[in-house]
User: What shape does this take?
Amino acid sequence: MKNPTSLPDFSPVSHSTVHEKVYDRIRDALVAGKMLPGQRIVIRELASALGTSMMPVREALRRLEAENALVATSGGTLTVPILSPIDYEELCLIRVALESKAAAEAATRITPRELDKLERVLVALEDASDHRDLETALRLNRAFHHLVYVAARRALLLRMIESLWLRVGPQLSYVVRSDIYGGIAIRSDDHPHRQVLAALRSGNGRAASSGIARDIRRAEKVIVAHLLEEAKQQKIAAK
Assistant: This one.
């Protein structure tokens, strides 16, 4: 057999490929809460961490600023936004509307294989929470929600939810890492995650929707209280 001497007919890698990958990596980091509220974005450092030039990083940051995932200070520096209590309440209002709808849709479309995977993720999430492994708990909490919303088979709805999580991720991560939340998934049959799983197994869209709403509201109560306390302390310090 002769050794091949010519390469396959590869399509040239487009300029946009690197740009999209950089955008996706930064976006994923925000959703994962790896970038925290108030964190200053330094383009040179980010480009170095991603192993790329500054141009695709600049373009990605411009896109994320347009999505309100990043904000510019008066000096022009981009930062991860620090949400006010009112901002976070509004964000949760929209989340409840969209994510509850996705859960209801998922109840009629989720497959047995997806249900089994969802349960495995939930068990691992509860284990991580029991052991105070916050990094793992945060990752698995995102995975649990994402699996539910993917099962809805509504691409546009999923994209809208993911855009909201660009702002949710940093705030939720900050509060959980600050050990204020008291356990992201306490093991209990009454926990909203368990309600969602049971509802999806029985095809009960209304109960699945209610469980997701409970989960969002449960976190909202803790986070808004924390934001209000921080605002109060800042006013005292400013006097």
About this structure: Confidence is low (pLDDT under 50) at residues 3-8. Residues 205-238 form the longest helix (34 residues).
